[in-house]
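subagent[fold] <- orchestrator: predict structure for attached chain, return tokens only, no commentary.
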Amino acid sequence: MPQSLAAVYLHVVFSTKNREPMIDPDLAARLFPYIGGVLRGNKNVLLTSGGMPDHVHLLISMGREQSISEMVGSLKSASSRWVHDTFPDRGGFGWQNGYGAFSVSPTHIEAVRAYIANQDEHHKARTFQDEYREFLQRYGIEFDERYVWD
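subagent[fold] -> orchestrator:
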């Protein structure tokens, strides 16, 4: 086959270090476009983004040139550095070490967009930890609670 093609969609979720509520509306308004630029620079596409003060949700169309871990590592590193450079008063900002990456069928992209857009509503009834555990369970991912949070 002379051409390589892919359609890989991921719902990526990760929190701030120790789930500190560091992402206020002013930061979010600039952070998500920056993350989109980092992804574009690595031939990925940010389809939608959102979250809460202590975590982010990203719906990403992955390119073919990076692994998931390279993609997430690159965007977390670049965005953390950008926050420190752009907002010097947020020296304590950082991302948790890990992340969750969950496959999304093309037929479910709009449902995931809606889910991400409604984070305020979801978190009236449950914490980030409960939400994340639910994702892990829904996808059949075994985990040890001692190593999920940092």
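orchestrator: received. Logging for downstream: The chain has a mean pLDDT of 94. The radius of gyration is 15 Å.
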